[in-house]
Amino acid sequence: MIYQGEALSVQLLQDGIAELRFDGAGAINKLDRATLLSLEQAVTALEQTSGIRGLMLTSAKDAFIVGADITEFLELFELPEAELGDWLAKANAIFNRIEDLPFPTLSVVRGYALGGGCECILATDYRIGDASARIGLPETKLGIMPGFGGTVRLPRLIGADNAMEWITTGQENKAEACLAVGVLDAVVDSDKLQTAAIRLLQDATAGKQDWQGKRARKCAPLTLDKLEAMMSFNTAKGMVAAKAGPHYPAPITAVKTIEAAAALGRDAALLVEQDNFVKLAKTPVARALVGIFLNDQFIKGKAKKAAKAAPATRKAAVLGAGIMGGGIAYQSAVKGIPAVMKDINDQALALGMNEAGKLLNKQLERGKIDGFKLTQVLSSITPTLSYDGLQGVDMVVEAVVENPKIKSQVLAEVETKVSEDAVIASNTSTIPISTLARSLQRPERFCGMHFFNPVHRMPLVEIIRGEQTSDDTINKVVAYAAAMGKSPVVVNDCPGFFVNRVLFPYFFGFGKLIADGADFVQVDKVMEKVFGWPMGPAYLLDVVGIDTGHHAAAVMAEGFPARMSKAGKDAIDVMYEQQRFGQKNGKGFYAYSQDKKGKPKKEADPQSYQLLQAVVTGQAEFAQDDIIARMMIPMINEVVLCLEEGIIGSPAEADLALVYGLGFPPFRGGVFRYLDTLGLASYVALADKFAHLGPLYQVSPGLRQMAADGKTFY
Ligand SMILES: NC(=O)c1ccc[n+]([C@@H]2O[C@H](COP(=O)([O-])OP(=O)(O)OC[C@H]3O[C@@H](n4cnc5c(N)ncnc54)[C@H](O)[C@@H]3O)[C@@H](O)[C@H]2O)c1
Asked: Looking at residue 595, what is its pLDDT?
């Protein structure tokens, strides 16, 4: 044994070949601070041991190294710039020392070598893997970029163009793709990895492989002439800027880093990387994106606990085969949980099956599934008009029309058809769960399970605990949502639950802006381009359906009259009265037609402006910042109230629900992250400027106090 540390060890195998084996304490290997320290000691031991003729890096786990320890990031990013730079320099010194060892080096990759794990293997002369290898540099997805030499070594190994693609997309690359570009030197069967590694190292030692030449190229400037470089970097910059957009600086910074360091040798190039890494780590965008990752981990952890505490769902029933019911049955079946899909209408069932078929065929075309899987999934959805097929069902999701009477009747009916320990959940978007629970004999086995449209694509499921819902029920439904591949967030009951409760104040803010003379097209543009929502409010209402929005607005007004009742008609009412229901019937705020590919195309419609005159009382012109403030303050205040009232459990869950359920701009991280970034005192001062607009613009006393105390949410 040459070295033994907490997370790794080094020993001599045969013929002077040493093995450095990563074996972290948990289920996976991470490059956390402790492991880096250990690695540094191991390298010192290697440098001081005589007789070593080759080194291979391996892992005792199924994966090589999954990456840096992201839970350490936010604390690291808070360090003063110089200290953060020092930390990077120290880590880089370790990888440089591995690269400079006086004998050939090689990494053996099974499973993930991502982020820091990928940068670690780039420091060795050779890399071989088996078919399970997945290699990549996903840092830009977190708003940062590689900081352990990835932007330096990767382009020198596989060329600037390939490296820029890997780094700016953050993609994970399969073994074959890694072999094709030259990140892997060979892909062999798993049981031959060890022998192949030893043979390659022996060949290198024997001078049959030019390992010194390989190493020298990795440490030299990039081999691009001026013209090539100009073409390559300018094209990349154009493409990356267009794709990432102005709100995500990391990918373009990575390209500029590679460009700026192109003519430099390793050590100077690493300094360029270090500077730019520090700059990115200090941006609110990095904090927001890392925050989302951590919030996601938090939710996943909760779901895992729930799954341990509750029996897994074996067979589900979905009531209603409409847009939502069809989507829920499909999603359940795709994830291996068979679903009976019941409706009262034959055509609805046919449509539901048809939609599932279409989605599966798309996956088949993309090569994601094969024909066998397609038939298997389709045959695990059982369409039916009767309750007969419900034996053995342990989970029911009700997704019939949004009508309290019909829902109550259907829920009472189905309860008599399933076993006593089956759980029933409703996908209602507005009706309080405790109200629906009244029609049930076993309200403790009932809760809300609010999916978002389209079900197969939207990651959030809001799980609503009614007054009588038991913990067992919540655990079972959380586990079912997670098994469906969704992110479950548990909330308490109130009109609109969490997501719709905070969305409608935003729409009321929109109505008030229109009344005061704003142009809805301008509002949409600002909220999309400047704030970063995927759709502005008018377009979103058109997509959701003006009739749906109109109905939900009324429910919210009844539920929260002090804040959400309206003095008179607003823009949504105007559209509703004219039966301009939005995209579904071709006209809403915008007019819709089909483009050549049959996709809906939206255009501003002069008629909308005329109709809206009925509710416009002002003629103000609005600056971008005012539009954003007037739209966002009502939502932000409502989100804060939901936390104060315990509707949502934590800032982390609130922010994740906003990003995953509504598409809140990820680079802002969610409402609480956004407030922390703005500073609570600045936010309160801003909101106070708009307080005259009504109760939705009043900051809660709790938030005011937090601001006065200089507190933050995270
Ligand atoms: N569409 C959305 O964006 C969305 C999003 C979240 C939640 N929801 C909620 O999901 C539920 C369903 O909405 P949808 O958009 O899928 O509606 P939909 O109109 O597309 O489908 C409703 C289906 O229920 C069927 N149905 C009616 N009575 C029934 C009964 N007694 N037994 C069985 N089936 C019956 C209808 O035939 C129809 O096929 C509603 O509660 C809605 O509020 C909808």
From this structure: 87
697-703 LR contacts (CB < 8 Å, sep 24+): 697/633, 697/634, 697/637, 698/637, 699/637, 699/640, 700/637, 700/640, 700/641, 700/644, 702/640, 702/644, 703/637, 703/640
Partnered with residue 676 across adjacent β-strands are: none
Atom of ligand 1 nearest to the CA of 453: 3
* Ranges of the chain with pLDDT below 70: none
Confirm if 435 and 466 have CB atoms less than 8 A apart. no
**Ligand 1: residues within 6 Å at CB?**
319-325, 342-345, 348, 399-402, 406, 410, 427-429, 451-453
Q: Which atom of ligand 1 is nearest to the CA of 319?
A: 33
pTM exceeding the 0.85 threshold for the entire prediction: yes
Residue 112, by phi and psi: left (phi above 0), alpha (psi -120 to 50) or beta? beta
In Å, how far are 41, 134, 554, 624 from 22, measured between CA atoms? 13, 17, 59, 52
Q: What is the pLDDT of residue 384?
A: 97
Closest CA to 274 of 91, 37, 100, 30: 91
The residue to mutate among 342, 343, 461, having the most atoms of ligand 1 within 8 angstroms of its beta carbon, is 343
CB 655 within 8 A of CB 671: yes
Task: List 339's β-bridge partners, or say none.
Answer: 316, 381
What's the pLDDT score for residue 137? 98
Our CA dihedral for 504, 510, 513, 519, rounded to 10 degrees, sits at: -170
Question: Do 489 and 463 meet the contact criterion of CB atoms below 8 Å apart?
Answer: yes
- CB contact at 8 A, 87 and 75: no
**pLDDT tens sequence across 507-564:** 999 999 999 999 999 999 999 999 999 999 999 999 999 999 999 999 999 999 999 9
List the residue whose alpha carbon is closest to atom 31 of ligand 1: 410
pLDDT of 566:
86
∠ at Cα 105 (103, 107), nearest 5°? Answer: 170
Nearest Cα to Cα of residue 433 among 381, 392, 474? 474
Q: Which amino acid is at 308?
A: K
To test the pocket of ligand 1, the residue of 318, 323, 540, 548 to mutate (highest count of ligand atoms within 8 Å of its CB) is: 323
Give the distance (Å) from ligand 1 centre to CA of residue 400: 4
Q: CA quadruple 293, 298, 299, 303: dihedral positive or negative? A: positive
Catalytic residues: 450
